[in-house]
Here is the input.
Amino acid sequence: MGAEEQVRTNAAFADNFSFLALASALSSSLVRAQSAELDEQVRNALQRIVEFFDADRGILCVVAHADRRVLIRDCVQRGGADLPLSTPDAGAIFPWLFDEVVVGGRVVSIPSIDRLPPAVALDRAGLCGWQVRSAQFVPISHAGVVEFVLGLGCSCDDPGWTDETIGRLCLLGETLAGALRHQVLEEKQVDSLRFERVIADACARFAGAWSDQIDEEIERALKEVLDFTGADQAGFFATVDTPGHLRLTHLNHAEGIVPAEKQVIPYGRACPWLYDIVVNQRRLYCFHRWDEIPIEAEVDRRYLEMKGTRSGLYVPYVVGGVVRHVFAVISNTGEIRWSPVLVERIQALGGVFVSALARKSVFDALRRSEEGLREAQRIAGLGSWEWDVQTDAVWTSPQTDLILGSKARSFKTFMERVPEDERAVLTQALEACLSGTPARQRIQHRILGAGGEERIVENHFERVAGGPASGPRVFGTLQDITLRRRDELELESLRAQRWHADRVAQIAVMTSSLAHELSQPLTAILSNAQAGLRMLRAGALPAEEGEAILEDIVADDKRAAQVIESLRAMLRRRPTERQRVEIAQLVRDVMGLMHSELVMNDVRFELDLLAEGCIEVDRAQIQQVLINLIMNGIEAMHC
Here is the structure.
């Protein structure tokens, strides 16, 4: 081997060694770098690559396929300074290179910009603006898709780059790309954990929140969504009965943003296409830029442009087959890339809102029901109570506590409010209730208040089957009927007075009839007594004749006594006394009293009575009813 060849071999060996040392050093520094340090390490690595290949410029781009853009991530020049650019979109500077490198996935080597065809004049101008005469761009792909572009530029023509240079550049590019992919994955994981923490914290707060705290917690969570996404406004809507309208119920916004008003908004008219997609078709919709909205949604595009909305996410929530809520997150100051993971997280958080609002609705309805029940019990003087037989625990409503005079927490304290002479009756009724003979009971008894005052209550209760482990329960209502009972007694007394007054009035009307009824037996008694006396004085009174005369006198006396007793019974002022009475005999007695009245008014009557038949009534009251009926009939016949 000659000296010259030995020199070339040594130079090649030294060059390979230098490259391997560079690749090893870059790989080591990038692997050890923390996520926060990685941007600086990548810039340093790009600077060392520029110096190793004796270039003047270095560029590292990230490809955004959805937007057909190539964003410049880092751009350095020899000496360590960053290279200022007019735009971060390399695709706009190098359209031909975009098609070749990004779309085609091909390496592009430009020995001299003078050799570029006229068709790529825009790319040539871009390279001139970059102050380079020659350049080389290599695509860095993953799974067949170009993710990054690494480029070098020199201020001279024909820098002497070879295929080996391209291979080395590709290897170093993969090293940079690997570190950046790891950073993206780490950031996604951090973001995912961070948002999951937002959801978890929101769930924990909602679980411990009272009904009147739900709205505040939702708006607090909306603020966290804004902080996480960088959006400007996050709102939660509820559908209303009017078609095409939504009510903004919850909202949070970034500083400097004029918020929307919490009111009913006619979105069906302002954004008909978007409303139809989200509410009518129940589909999630998002856009990164307002110009992504289709042409057929021209009305929506004009409205969003007028409002300054640049990005938006709209998530519907279906309850009972229809959309009940819509979660909207919008940005006016920047564009937001709505990744599937981010959308899924926001959708999940909205589901937490829906559950919390449903719980709030149930709590509010329950509170209104309890307030209505409490007010109804207060007005009716009716309380409710429940007794767990197994634990002896007693639950009472506020109205029951008012009736009892204090809170009864056990069956024992409940029974202490009942006077001793009535406890046995109540206990017996409860035992019958528990045994199911019958299961529903009704009883009136007294209650002793805390101050010793007595109240009369009506207690309705029945047995309610409990669970396998809880045992039976008794549910009841307790109504204070003290005033009602007092009114009933007064009414009963007034009714008795009226009955008595009516009887006196009727007797006054019947005076002549009663006098006639009494005169007959008295006249017969007098006649029989005088006849017997004459016969006795004449000494011509046989024993049999005297006995007959005395029997007639006894019979007539009994008849008179019966008339007097009937009159006394009708006039007597006494409480109602029910007794078993033969109804036919009662009618005969009344007709006997009314006989003279009927005769004087020339009224004939016939009795058609059953041989037997008894009822349980107050005899005097029924007599008065019949007398009133007969007297009304007599008056009606003479009208």
